Amino acid sequence: MGQANYPKGVVMANGNPEWTKAVGSGLPAASGKDFYDWADDVIACPGPKQWGLTYDDGPSPETPKVLDALKSHSIKATFFTVGAQAQAYPDLLKRAHQEGHQIALHTWSHKSLPEISLDNAIAEVVYNAMIVKDTIGVTPKFIRVPYGKINAPIRKMLHNLGLTIVAWNLDTKDWRDTAPIVGLIKERADTGTSGVVSLQHDINPQVIEHIPKSIEAIVNGKAGYKAMPVSTCLGQEAYDEGFWTRLGAAPPSGSAASSPSEAPAPAPATSAATKAATATATATATSAATKAATATAQASGTATAHSTKRKYSEVHL
């Protein structure tokens, strides 16, 4: 692939017919406009006291404040990274990775994938993976789709790339109003009885001021939650270089970054046996760890559980 010819800034990525041929063939048909059926996706950590702490849309000039707050409590989190933002602030992405946080995908320009062409949707994901690989030397295995919007063909395409899809079951709605955020997190941290994946953002100045207090609320919560990256609570590797094999393309040639101080998950193995296992797992469309998380969440019988045709409004707590 060589040096990537990236989109210029926050613009929708153009499609590549070779990529579409590799991972976009034989997809199921879309059914209706229900973009919030997360029944087959991760919405909660499987352990009853596990808190998957996630931040979307960065990196940005506000990200250091989040990193500082996490570092002060020795907490690792998952950052769902927008490609155009990584292009603009590569040093911040490197810092997050070097400090042991999980870096995951959030598309190139934050477009709703079911509402653009398949060619463009695939390119949004691939360019996102390329810029992360170019910047920190590894390829994320996890993705969160923008706005939580997904449908059957998009899900299958992402599974064809070997990606684990993560939604959430605790939406702080920090993009809209910062006032109730700490209280919302504190209530769950004090009274929750099942696993959490929370949604916050590290891009807007007005939503950053609550971050230290929200982290403190989790740490000091009466329910005894432990905050961690989503890959850790699922027991999955955070990165997977098999992405490029599935795409049928060489990875970008950027130099690898230095190793993180405390990686949230072990580096992916590269043996032939591991690659074969990865290919088999991809064919099943979800990993065993993800299925385990789903089963555990279903057993809880709470609003955090996966269930058939689970709606966006039902899990925005």
UniProtKB/TrEMBL annotation:
Swiss-Prot/TrEMBL GO biological process terms: cell wall organization; chitin catabolic process; fungal-type cell wall biogenesis; polysaccharide catabolic process
Keywords, comma-separated and alphabetical: Carbohydrate metabolism, Cell membrane, Cell wall, Cell wall biogenesis/degradation, Chitin degradation, Cobalt, Glycoprotein, GPI-anchor, Hydrolase, Lipoprotein, Membrane, Metal-binding, Polysaccharide degradation, Secreted, Signal
GO cellular component: a single term: side of membrane
Cofactors (names): Co(2+)
EC code: 3.5.1.41
Catalytic EC class: hydrolase
Disordered: region residues: 250-317
Membrane topology: Lipid-anchor; GPI-anchor
Compartment(s): Cell membrane; Secreted, Cell wall
Annotated InterPro entries: Glyco_hydro/deAcase_b/a-brl, NODB_dom, Polysacc_deacetylase_ArnD
GO MF term (any one): metal ion binding
Broad class of the protein's primary localization: membrane
Keyword Cell wall biogenesis/degradation among UniProt keywords: yes
Reactions catalysed according to its record: [(1->4)-N-acetyl-beta-D-glucosaminyl](n) + n H2O = chitosan + n acetate
Domain NodB homology: 49-228
SUPFAM superfamilies referenced in this protein's UniProt entry, alphabetically: Glycoside hydrolase/deacetylase
Biased composition (Low complexity): 250-306
Similarity comment text for this entry: Belongs to the polysaccharide deacetylase family.
Protein name per Swiss-Prot or TrEMBL: chitin deacetylase
Organism ancestry: Eukaryota, Fungi, Fungi incertae sedis, Chytridiomycota, Chytridiomycota incertae sedis
